[in-house]
Amino acid sequence: MKAIVILGSRNPQGQTATAADALAAGLASAGCEVEKAFLPHMRIERCRQCDDAGWGICRSEGRCIIEDDLAGLVAKLASTDLAVFATPVYFGDLSESMRALLDRLRRTCCHESGKAKVSGKPAVGICVAGGGGGGAPSCASSLTKVLNTCGFEPADVVPVRRQNLAMKCESLTATGKALAAGI
Asked: Model's pTM, two decimal places?
């Protein structure tokens, strides 16, 4: 089994990475091969809304015209058994790098050939709020909506607060083990 963990956080030792690492540790302990991708270290442009109607070949061909790291990341998503999306929570929502990825991915998934790459694939979301934590549930709701639009099968979307990070990490490790055993 293979999983990809896509992180919308720049800090590989931060709270979001800690939560994602807990899930990855559970997956790995059950024999899953785990690859990580840090979005802020990649070149993922935001959607250009190519034509006057706000669309482009994403809608007609299921791919994006922008030549950056998106196509390679989508190929990795297509070749894995599980996708994990881990994002810090800013203003009650996804990080800017995660938003850029998912905005373009959901557009390509409006076409059947784009959706086929991820349709039915199990996904886990992790939304980590570092401040008071009140924005984590709304971020989790936003992430769930986008994952469903793309055609993923969300297995779990976990809101995390810095105040409950240690407890959630224990749960995420157990979730990783269970997912690896069940997929």
From this structure: 0.96
